[in-house]
Amino acid sequence: MRIKKFIIQDFRSIKNSGEVNLEPEITVLIGKNESGKTNILKALESFNGDYEYTDSDLCIYSATKKKLESGEIEKEDVPIITIWFEIEKEDKEKLKEIHSQLTKINTIKITKFFDNTYEVEIDNVDLEKIEEESFNKIAIDFKNEITAFKEKLDSHAQRYSPFSSAKQQYEQILSQIESYSPQEDPNIDTTFSSFYTQLRSLPNQDTYIQNDIESFIKKLDQYKLEFKKILAGEDSIIDKILKITPQFIYFNTMEELTDTVRIDEFLEEREKYKTLNNLLKLAGLDVERLKDVDHYERLAAESEASATITGYINESWKQEKVNIKLRLDSGEIIVYIEDEVGALDPPTRRSQGFQWFLSFYINFTAGSKGELKNTVILLDDPGVYLHPSGQRDLLNTLEKISKHNQIIFTTHSPFLIDRKNLQRVRIVSKEKDRIGTKIEEKFYISKYDALEPIRASIGMTIGDSLFTTKKNILVEGFSDFLILEAFSKICKEEGLNHIELDNREISIIPVGGAEKMPYFSTLLSKENLNFVVLLDHDSEGRKIKKELIEKFEIEENLILTLDKITENPGEDAEIEDLIDFELYLQAVNIAYKKIFKEKLNKEKIEASDLERPNFSGLKKYFRKKKIGQSGKIDKIKVAKALISILPETEINKQNLSKWDSLFNSLKQALQL
C-alpha cells in the first residue's frame, strides 16, 4: 500500500492540515525553521500501533484540550490522523485472505483517534456487517458442533445401557451450551469451566465416552478463545487490515558504522551494531560460519564480500572511487576504506558527510529488502553534512529506494529538489492568528515565496540552482525542444528569424507537460527572469493559458499559442503542425518502419491512408490502428528521426515562413 493523501488534526502545531496529497514515490517538505515540518513527520509516525498519544501531543492552537478537560468531548471523539491508502497489486492477495469482499477495493481510509483506537472505512463495504457475518458463522459452527456431539452421546447411550440414565442430564447441559451468548457474559472462562465440570461429571461413563467428552471440551476451548478475541477486538477485520498497512519509520539521525568490534560481542549483540550487521548482510559475509573455517577460505570470503559492497557503494557515491574492505582477524571484525590514492582509513576518520552517506546507504538498502519492507520512510533533513554533489548522490539513492518504499523528507537544500519533479514539493508554513501549520501542495500559489527558506539557508537563487540563463522559452515537452532547436538552426542558415542558442543567453526548457507550466512560470516570475510560454492550442493548452492569466497573473503577451502561427487561427494546433506534413510523415515512417511491418504488414503509411493529411489525422490513425503505446505517437521518437533527415532535406520557403513568424514572436516576447 502507498499513501494517497492524509489529514492531520489537533497534533502539536497542526490544527488542521486539510487534505494533503502525496506522490507515490517521493514527497519533499520545505519551509522555514519552526514551520512544523518535523511535526508532520511525527504525526505520520504516530499512526503506528505502538504510539500512544499524550496530552502534550494535542495542538496548542485548538480548544480540544479544554473540551477534554471539561468533559464536553471524549478522547474517542478526537481524530488525530486520517490516511487514505491506495491498494497495490500485492495487497490484493492479503485482502483476499481477510475477506473475499475486500478483493475489489482500491482505497482504504483509516483514522487514528486520540484514545489510540482506529476507524476503517471502505467505499461500498460494510465492515460491521462482515464482522457480524463472521461472528454468526462461528456461532453456527459452534451449534453444529454441539449437535454432532449430542448425536455421539445418544449413540453411546444406545451402545452402553448404564450411560442411558445420564441422557436427561447431558441434554440439559448441551441445551445450556447451545443457548449460551458470549456477548452477555463478563466471565467467559468461569462459564466454560462450569460446562467442562458438568460434562466430566456425567455418571456411568466408559473409556470411549470419556475420550469423546475430552475431545469435545478441546473444541469448546477453541471456540472460547475465538469468542474472547472477538469481544476484545482482537483478530477482527479492522485488526487484520491494520496488520497489513505500512509502518512508518522516522529518522533524524543515522547510526554510523563501527570501525572494529570483537566477533563474539557482535554475535551476541547484533542489534547494538545494526549498521555493521546490515553491511555484512549486504556484502553476504556470514561471520558465524567463517569463525571456524581455514585461513584461505576466510580470505576468499572477505575478498568477495569487499568487492560486493564496494560495487554497491560506488554505484551511488560519485564523489570518488572507494574500496570498502572487510577483514576478520584476531577475533575481530575490521572495516576500513581505501581511497583512490591508496590511503587506508577506518570509517570514523572519513568526512562526516561520507560517514553519514555510507551509513544511510547500508541501512536503507539492506532495510528495503528486509525490516523496512512495507514501510513509509520519514527523513528529517537528510544529508545535512553532505557536499552539494553528495546530496545529489543521496537524491539518486532515494530514487532507487522509493521503488520499494514511499519516502517523505524535509529539506532546506535545493540539491535535494529535482527540478524535473517539482510536483513533489509541498510548502510548509505556520500561519498567524492561531491557525498553525499549513501545507500547500501547489507551491507556486503559496502565500509567501516558496523558495525563501532555500535561498536564506544556502544563499542561492533559484536561477542559480535550476536555470542557467536569464531568458527562457518554456515548452511543453522534449519533442518541442528538439524540433525548435532544429528549425532554429535552419532558419539561421537561411538568414531568417531564429533563436540564438549557442551563447547560453537563451534556454529552451521542456517542463514535462502543459499542466506543469504554472510551476515554472511562477518560479521564473519570482526570480525576475525573462520568459515566454509556448503552448499547444488544444483543450489543455487553452485551459492552462486561462489559468496563467487569471490565476497566476502572467501577462498575456508572455503566452504564445501555436494557432497564431498556423494557417488556421483558432483551430487546434501543435508544434508538429508547423512542419510540412509530407516531411513529418517521412520521419514517422522511419521511426515506425519495423512496427508498421509487424502491425500493418507494410513498411510505411501514405497520406491517402488518413482521413485528413495532417497531424490530427495521423493521431487519429494511430488510435484507430492501436499503434504504439496506448495508440499514441511517440513524439520524441519521431522528432529524432526528423532531425536525422533534416540536413539532407530542402525545406520549402512557404513552410519556413511559419518558423520565421514563430521565432519572431518568441523574440518579441523575450525583448530580443
Automatic annotation (TrEMBL):
Q: Which residues form the Endonuclease GajA/Old nuclease/RecF-like AAA domain?
A: 1-417
Annotated Pfam families: AAA_15 (PF13175), OLD-like_TOPRIM (PF20469)
Name all OLD protein-like TOPRIM domain ranges: 469-538
Domain of life assignment: Bacteria
Q: Supply the PANTHER family for this chain.
A: AAA+ ATPASE DOMAIN-CONTAINING PROTEIN, ATP/GTP PHOSPHATASE
Q: What is this protein called?
A: AAA family ATPase
